[in-house]
Amino acid sequence: MVGMRDDEPQEYERPSDLEPSPRRAELRRPPATYYRRVALGTVVPGAGLLRTRWRILGWVMLLGALTFAAYLVVRTLQGEALKAALDAAVNPKVLQWIGVAVMIGAVLWIGSIVLTAEEAWPRIRHGRWARVAFAAAGCLLVAAPSAFAVRYLEVQSSLINEVFSAEGSTSAGPGLTEPEAKDPWADVPRVNTLLIGSDAGKDRWGTRTDSLMVVSTNTRTGDTLLVGIPRNLENVPIPDSNPLSQLYPNGYNCGDQCLMNGIWTLAEGRRDLFPGVKNPGRQSTMDVVGEITGLRIDQSVVINLKGFRALVDAMGGVDINAKERVCVECSSRPDGGIKWTYGKQEWIEPGLQHLDGRRALWYSRSRAGSDDFARMRRQRCVAGALIEQADPVSLLRRYPQLAKVVKDNVSIDIPRDELSAWVDLVLRIQKGGSIRSLPLTSTVIHPANPDFAKIHALVKKSLKPKKAATSTASPTTSGSSTPTPSPSKTKPSPSTTPDDASAEQLAATC
Q1: Buried b or exposed e, range 364-396, using 16+ CB within 10 angstroms
Q2: 230 near 445, Cβ under 8 Å?
Q3: Contact 312, 360 (CB under 8 A)
Q4: 3-state SS of the chain: helix, strand, coil percent to 5?
Q5: 332-353: per-residue pLDDT in tens?
Q6: pTM for the complete prediction?
Q7: What is the pLDDT of residues 377-396, one digit of tens each?
Q8: Is residue 123 helix, strand or coil?
């Protein structure tokens, strides 16, 4: 060059200086622009790419996200968002596709953040690691909840596949119309589900039904009636359709050795009478309870006692308004007193109580100083309280633990292809159905000689709630209730079950 010596250093224009002005301006952008674009791309998929050479990809991602958001808003305004979410939650195939979509969406979103960071990267050395950390944080904010969602989807899919039957109930079932129909319960006015608490364990032979409760639900209104069945009933009727009737044509009538809770083990010991039946004990228990109540039992849920304790713990405990004093880790002495298993007295006192799994199990099962009728009332109380207090946020937080408990301890014979219809029914119960309890009292049931015709009439009468039914008892979760004065410190309270049995609101039960 003119005026310069050959040995003088020469400055050449950097290639970037020769690029078109927009590109030069892009390279001279301050770091603040970088942070704004990366943050925008983290919050809104593709938004950070709209002013880069990847703008087409940015617009595709942005429009896709806006379309999905609009869909959710519309479904929410129509009141269908919860129904759609629950329908998806009970369909393993849909859950798998949602999982794939979440993973693909997360990869694209994270990729767009990386591209945004690259395109907006200022050509200065100062603050390089801060910018890298900021982009990495944006990627993590997308990756973490996506991984969380995929994990929960896998847990839910596994739960549905393992707990619910593929081929359907062993009974005739409720006779649902097609699950895809507008109202699959249109031809089913009422569905009856039997809840079975089992005491099966390593130290016990066979399975004994420690507690039995029928949940009868009006499919139109969601109104639900809980009916407890005493486990020590004698002479229980066996329908002619059940093979056990060949052995006991006049009912299970061999004295106090033939009780209701022995039907399961009896049937399992005579599998030869049940060719092709997968679980004769379960089927026979459902058949006999149907004869006792006069109801057709459509489905059943079996939970062992260990599972009940773990289930309550997984839900964070349960709140009840105890109506009587109940001992914990105890049994009855021959003289009518209380024997403490570990030599230490422990009581559940009357009044508002928050029970963990161990104490909830004892409140439901303890018979020391009490009777089966009081215990049945307490069981209905705890079951109803668990239903009413199921908090979606709390359950979601504990869901992996809760799902494991259910898979390990609960068996449900509702077929998977009918779960969408059951979602409809649960929503109806939550929306407007009441939960009532039918106390079968000592005036109705004499365990050694029960009047089954009277039980049928009482159950039939109780299926329709009284229009003017009110309750003066405090709800189980009320914080303003005054605890009942504590009785004697040495004995539990006697049964408070009224002499005349009639269906009552759950709050009056506990």
Answers
A1: bbbebbbebbbbbbbbbbbbbbbbbbeeeeeee
A2: yes
A3: yes
A4: 45, 15, 40
A5: 888 878 888 888 899 999 999 9
A6: 0.72
A7: 888 788 878 877 776 667 77
A8: coil
